[in-house]
Amino acid sequence: MLRMLLGEQPRHNNGLLEEAIESMVKTSQLLQKEIDKHQDPTHDFRKLEIWTKGLIVSLDELEQSWNAAKHFSQSVQSGYIDDMSIQEQGEYQRYVYFYKNGFIRVFSILDKLGTVLNDLYDLNTSKVKAHFSYFTVLRQFRFLKSHGELADELEEIKDQYKKPLNALRKRRNAEIHYMNAEMQDDLWQRHQGLKEKIELEDIDQHLDDLKQGLEMVCKSLAASYKYTNKLWAENGIRT
Length: 239
Hints:
Blueprint: H1 2-5, H2 15-38, H3 44-73, H4 86-120, H5 134-144, H6 148-160, H7 162-178, H8 181-192, H9 203-235
């Protein structure tokens, strides 16, 4: 949708994105077959199907946000905010909007995945923490010594992207709890010299962090749903 608005060609899924989406689509298809076969009187299958389809939509929105942020960043050439023309300021603000939308969605998707895993594998994470995150769910896997193969893979993915994820988390927390994330750098620079021009943040680095966050999300989704599909193929669907 956003690509059309930006005058770009439609996206063709490939790589990690394709792998994640295809694994979730397969799960949705398996769930739909079970619903058709058994009518799903407890609505457990339907709930998982809706959650899974929601994750597919959320992943699509994350990728579009990253792409739109990259698109608008290409029109930002000034090194200082004070040197920007009105038009360039508009492009910068559009970049910031989609960049922020992107890093918020990274953690939103992970937490949604955590909810699915908690329900699917009876982890009872809410007994540990009422409002739990994806990372709490990973710790619960370890505590219960449950589904070690999946837990190991998800931990490995998390550790692989530790640095960019920490950078995104810091900016997400600032955005949600304190101030607009892009203003943190401005505040720090004002402390250094009140009369100095505000230098632009490292946009390329921020976009790279977001791209890696997208990759981490894709890998985590693919690992989770591939494991689930494999388990169901071996043992039949159980919720």
